[in-house]
Amino acid sequence: MTSIRPRPATITDIARQAGVSTATVSYVLNDAPAGARIPEETRARVRAIADELGYVPHANARSLRTGSRDLVLYVHFDVVHGPLATGFLYGFTRALRDLGYTLMQYGAERHRGVKAARSWAALRPAAVIAGDDRLTPAGVALLLKAGIRVFGMGSDPAAAKGTGLSTLIMDHRAIGLAAGRDLLERGYRDLAVVVPVDPPLRVMGEGRLEGVREAAAEVGASVRVHEMEYSPGSAAGIVAAWGEEGLPEGVFGYNDEFAGLLLGALLDAGVDVPGRVGLMGADDVMLCRMLRPTLSSVRVESESPEEIARRVVASITEGTEVHLSPWSPVPVRRQT
Amino acid sequence: MTSIRPRPATITDIARQAGVSTATVSYVLNDAPAGARIPEETRARVRAIADELGYVPHANARSLRTGSRDLVLYVHFDVVHGPLATGFLYGFTRALRDLGYTLMQYGAERHRGVKAARSWAALRPAAVIAGDDRLTPAGVALLLKAGIRVFGMGSDPAAAKGTGLSTLIMDHRAIGLAAGRDLLERGYRDLAVVVPVDPPLRVMGEGRLEGVREAAAEVGASVRVHEMEYSPGSAAGIVAAWGEEGLPEGVFGYNDEFAGLLLGALLDAGVDVPGRVGLMGADDVMLCRMLRPTLSSVRVESESPEEIARRVVASITEGTEVHLSPWSPVPVRRQT
DNA sequence: TTGTACGCGTTATCAG
DNA sequence: CTGATAACGCGTACAA
Questions:
Q1: Who wins on pLDDT, B33 or A52?
Q2: Is the pLDDT of residue A134 over 50?
Q3: Which CA distances in Å does A144 have to A38, A169, B14?
Q4: What positions does the domain HTH lacI-type occupy (chains A, B) (predicted)?
Q5: Smallest Cβ distance to B59: which of A83, A122, A319?
Q6: Is B231 in contact with B258 (CB distance < 8 Å)?
């Protein structure tokens, strides 16, 4: 007597036990109008058996039959999500669920381009949201051809326009612009900007840098650029370099974490912050209020996840291309 | 002339265009032994058409037919994942993929117990990994009955033993024990511990507290407990209370973030850290090295994600209950 | 209420 | 040797 591994109950199991057809079971469990005149006694019996068997409909089989797609695939960047992104993702997930879609996060994808696209397409999602580092024109084309909407996170909306690729971006240039303007308003004319070397972050860093440069150009200020790794040693190296070439007046540290590392290195070097050097981060995470002096930052306010979800769903159902930029930057001045 | 929404190509489309049966297409595309003797010419034609059509097999249809389950559902806690958890999750995802399974993250689940279990069961995963705040005995039973393995994150292994529920836990008691012992080694006998009020964090906080208490009991030290929210105000409140009742000698701040908030509040109050008060966080994230003075912490080293993945898969294929605790704590002493 | 075709792909069986 | 037929997995929905 070998114990068999449990198997999920099927509609057929229920039909057999209840002595009715599978059609009847389906009608009863779905409260379908076509089965409206099935006697209450039968209905009760079917329901009782379904319950007893722990029956749960097979989502795959159902969607295979109905042809419905309710999956939205979210393919991560390979980086740690900050509280901002996490918070948005939660709201977005919930909002999508309310609209009848299921968002699944698909992490640690090792492929890109057509290979990645094929693995996503196999799941027949209604849409895929992926970092632009995973997308290639051929991959996007494959998905679109299969009726799967594609959202590039970070892709350039101008370049995407007309290709069918939708975009969902954080406007990094705008963040840099806000930070740069805030530093310039304080009278600084000699600015330094940090750009992460880590590839997925680098693109964003360059966008932010561009914004600072734009702000600087408005008043004829200068901008120095430094590559930085996410490590105390790299921060110390930059501060040491400033010791040689002269300290900048204002520093934009890419984000709060990089800025936090820089702040530590500046304090270690005995630099007066903000007396000698003004410092800004971005994202406005709680970290800003842990550091002393407290860190100035650029808060990124997001449009309601519900609204974004609605527009994503509209794009899915209408098969149209949309370009969403749910974030807007606001400087927050603190002690640095 | 209405443009029809693109539809994914099916095996039937290919068969029609190639003038062969769907069986032939299937054999060719899968390099099945049964189709080994299909002439190269036909094979090439089928492959070319599949390629041209952008054909990708329908994963659902395939698994429906073969009965295979390769999905592992990971249901988040509703909190921001730190770098530690994120890093583990990435490695774990990759390792599972190498073993033929796909890990999907399912966030912002609004249900718990049987309701949640039903929504997971509908996806027919091979296993579900969920926070114990989402699991109830009835829910677990439903899943097990359907042949779906269940891993409770944070569930008590002792309580689970024999019920079929597997566990995957971080040993919070051990973290508190390590922190407590480190503080006591420095000679502190008047300890304070912070416990977050936020429900999902509270459980972990209580586990860590228990560990500190255990350490304190070994040498007869005292332990004060303070509830804390994740806000600068709450930290300031606690420090103010210490002003009234007297400062503790050593503080365990639950984790680095809560400790960082406390550090800021202590410095604001003019308290000498670590001269007057020693402070420890936990998790050892980069934040520790941004703060000045740099924060002592408890690093949590995880067993290799590959090894954990192997054991999870073994549990799935053999249908056995396992209890994994892939983390071990190591104190890291810095300036605080 | 039931029989059954269908959605998509796999595979054992059978025929030219 | 080459390849088609058909049953099947699970649930839905139309015709009877």
A1: A52
A2: yes
A3: 44, 19, 19
A4: 9-66
A5: A122
A6: no
Chain C bases having any atom below 7 Å from a protein CB: 1-4, 6-13
Contact assessment for residue B243 and residue B269, using Cβ atoms and an 8 Å cutoff: yes
This prediction has a pTM of: 0.90
Which has the closest alpha carbon to B10: B43, B53, B45? Answer: B53
CATH of the domain at A204: 3.40.50.2300
Residue A8 preceded by cis peptide, ω within 30: no
**Token digits for A187?**
């009278």
The answer on B214 and B185 residing in a single domain is: yes
Residues B258 and B151 in one domain: no
CA neighbours closer than 13 Å in the CB half-sphere of residue B72: 24
For residues A288 and A186, state if they share a domain: yes
Instruction: Please write the tens of the pLDDT for every residue from B122-143.
Output: 999 999 999 988 999 999 999 9
Provide the domain limits for residue B33.
11-57
Structural domain includes residue A17: yes
Residue A245 and residue A210 share a domain: yes
Residue A47 to residues A15, A143, A168, A335, B142, Cα–Cα distance (Å): 11, 41, 44, 65, 16
CB–CB of B28/B45 below 8 Å? no
Does B179 share its domain with B296? Answer: yes
Collapsed DSSP state (helix, strand, coil) of residue B224:
strand
- The answer as to whether B2 is a domain residue is no
What pairing do the DSSP bridges indicate for beta strands A250-252 and A190-196? parallel
Mean of the pLDDT values across residues B135-157?
94
Q: Testing the interface with B: which of A14, A63, A80, A267 to mutate, by most B Cβ within 10 A?
A: A80
**Nearest residue to nucleotide C13 when comparing alpha carbons to its C1'?**
B34
Provide the sign of the torsion angle of the four alpha carbons A87, A92, A95, A97, taken in this order.
negative
B20 and B116 in a single domain? The answer is no
Residues A206 and A250 in one domain: yes
d(CA B17, CA B287): 60
Kindly provide the b/e burial profile for residues A86-111, where b requires at least 16 CB atoms within 10 angstroms of the residue's own CB.
bebbbbbbbbbbebebbbbbbbbbee
Q: Which residues in chain A touch residue B118, judged by CB atoms under 8 angstroms apart?
A: 56
**CA angle A196-A76-A85, nearest 5°?**
70
Does the nearest atom of strand D lie within 7 Å of A37's Cβ? no
**Structure-block tokens of residue A237:** 């190296």
Q: Is residue A221 part of a domain?
A: yes
Nearest to A131 by CA among A56, A193, A79, A55: A79
Extract the tokens encoding B179: 């922190």
Please check whether residue B103 is in contact with residue B72, taking contact to mean a CB–CB distance below 8 angstroms: yes
Q: Give how many domains chain A has, as a whole number.
A: 3
Q: Which of A239, A273, A290 to mutate to test the interface with B (most CBs of B within 10 A)?
A: A290
